[in-house]
Design goal:
The protein has a single domain, classed as Rossmann fold (3-Layer(aba) Sandwich), CATH 3.40.50.150. The chain is 48% helix and 17% strand. Helix 3 crosses helix 5 and helix 8 packs antiparallel against helix 9. The longest helix is centred in the C-terminal third of the chain and has 21 residues. Bound molecules: S-adenosylmethionine. S-adenosylmethionine binds next to helix 1 and helix 5.
């Protein structure tokens, strides 16, 4: 048994309440999400998404590959995946699907995809219960969404159901660096600077304190890899990014 997200003030065993709290919190931060992401990460978030996209090339270069970005938020990874597919396959590439359970986030994503003239397929869906048949996707991605799920094992079981044989689940998540110098410096920034700026600008109360807490309580890369294998992925490769601040888990089915 692994576990799931534990936002303050909610019984972690009550998964419906946990999910509701998380959905409402993201709904509140949606209008300022991109601005805060760029500001607080100094645009490193875009570099990390780029690493995921490069690792996923064996899937993206197949025009017929079915690609799903779960917990897509404002759609940055949908755009990055779609751009790479277009570069590799031209107009023959099928559109990337983005899914999220927060309507305000999807509204922001929709605006962005229209602005960038990208083919759009956005779905309002809970990651635990995606309205698609088993083995529907060759590549499933989830960037900084997995940590927020109310039950990690149940999420991984759903992703294993959705992934086609030979398919891949790419999870990009924050982690706790253990690298000397990076760990204390980033720890200080994450604990003392980021929540203050994030909470003040987002106007959302505690969303950015939750971010810091949720990363400190999250699974280690080893625990996540073991849970993915238990859920049905045969091999997991991890890539540590920027001194272990984020970790990419490539889970192959
Ligand atoms: C930190 S944001 C990440 C957004 C985006 N992937 C990115 O790269 O910036 C997390 C997103 O996960 C979504 N989310 C969290 N739990 C979810 C669930 N159970 N089902 C669907 N979406 C979920 C939230 O609504 C939010 O948009």
């Amino acid at each position: 048994m692994t576990r799931g997200a534990t936002p303050a003030g909610v019984d972690p065993a009550n998964q419906v309440a946990v999910s509701r709290q998380i959905r409402e919190m993201f709904g509140r931060v949606a209008p300022r999400y991109d601005f805060l992401n760029r500001l607080l990460s100094l645009r490193i978030d875009q570099y990390w998404r780029g690493v995921l996209v490069r690792k996923a090339r064996p899937y993206l270069e197949r025009p017929e590959a079915r690609v799903l970005d779960l917990c897509c938020g404002t759609g940055d990874l949908v755009v990055a995946l779609d751009r790479e597919r277009k570069r590799l396959c031209g107009d023959a590439a099928s559109a990337v699907t983005g899914a999220d359970f927060s309507r305000p986030m999807l509204t922001e994503a929709g605006r962005k995809l229209v602005r960038k003239s990208r083919p759009m397929r956005l779905v309002e869906a809970d990651a635990f219960d995606v309205p698609a048949r088993a083995a529907s996707f060759d590549l499933i991605t989830i960037a900084w969404g997995f940590r927020n799920l109310a039950d990690y094992d149940a999420g991984l079981r759903e992703f294993a159901r959705l992934a086609a044989p030979g398919g891949c689940l790419a999870i990009l998540e924050f982690s706790q660096s253990t690298v000397p110098l990076v760990a204390p410096l980033f720890g200080f920034y994450f604990r003392h600077v980021l929540p203050r700026i994030g909470n003040a600008i987002s106007g959302s109360g505690g969303a950015y304190s939750y971010l810091q807490n949720s990363v400190e309580k999250f699974l280690t890369p080893g625990q996540l890899s073991a849970a993915a294998q238990k859920a049905g992925f045969r091999r997991v490769e991890t890539v540590s990014l920027s001194g272990g601040i984020s970790v990419l888990h490539m889970c192959y089915k």
